[in-house]
Amino acid sequence: MTAPEIERLINLLAKLPGLGPRSARRAVLALIRRREALLAPLAKAMADVADSVRTCSTCGNIDGRDPCALCADARRDASVICVVEDVADLWALERTGAFKGRYHVLGGTLSALDGIGPEDLSIPALIERAGADGVAEVILALGATVDGQTTAHYIGDKLTDAGIAVSGLAHGIPVGGELDYLDDGTLSAALKARRKLGGQRPGESG
């Protein structure tokens, strides 16, 4: 019989992406065996994150401050906004070091099947940010999935109608691919070779 405290920890870890019950059990055993070196520091780090981390009210990134360090960095180019689906994608692009502008996290993608519409995401906030003085370009760095491309075209049409320049990631992003799983070189190439968007529907060439 497993102690209830241990079973609870296993069940919680099993809910994390990439971890099932078996992997969670192995992880918990490793933590317990190295209680002083791993378990205690991990528990403190998790408590610190729970107490201090917040969502940036400007871009949607997560950080220990609001606005986040990226939004507060005056050295970044405020004229370019890169739109991503979630924070994992933001982190993936930051790892490349290829983008020096600002970000906007949507918090998901449009999905008729799941009942997710524009108001369920931070699309209205993006439209407002993009219309501010000094914004010259919006890069739609969304995954090459059906929902990702549907979202990109929806936003692209809205921004183009408002007279805002829109571009999207170019070659190197496989169909069905998600940004967080791509290597840094592929992401860098896609950013540098981005293409203009707006007024083009899924399935159209050009």
In CATH, the topology of the largest domain is named Dna Topoisomerase Vi A Subunit, Chain: A, domain 2
The share of residues in extended strands comes to: 5-15%
Low-confidence stretches: 200-206
- Compressed to H and E, one letter per element, the order equals HHHEEHEHEHEHEHE
Number of strands: 7
Which terms would index this structure?
Helicase, Ruva Protein, domain 3, 206 residues, Dna Topoisomerase Vi A Subunit, Chain: A, domain 2, 13% strand, alpha/beta, single chain, 7 strands
Question: Can you characterise this structure?
Answer:
The chain has a 5-stranded mixed sheet with strand order 4-3-5-6-7. The longest helix has 18 residues, at 35-52. Helix 7 links the parallel strand 5 and strand 6 (165-168). Helices cover 43% and strands 13% of the residues. Helix 2 packs across helix 3 (35-52). The protein has helices spanning 4-13, 21-33, 35-52, 69-72, 87-96, 123-130, 146-161, 184-192, and strands at 54-55, 62-63, 77-84, 101-105, 137-140, 165-168, 195-196. Residues 200-206 have low confidence and may be disordered. The chain folds into 2 domains: 4-49, Helicase, Ruva Protein, domain 3 (Orthogonal Bundle); 76-196, Dna Topoisomerase Vi A Subunit, Chain: A, domain 2 (3-Layer(aba) Sandwich), CATH 3.40.1360.10. The protein has 206 residues and is α/β, with parallel strands linked by helices. It is built from 8 helices and 7 strands.
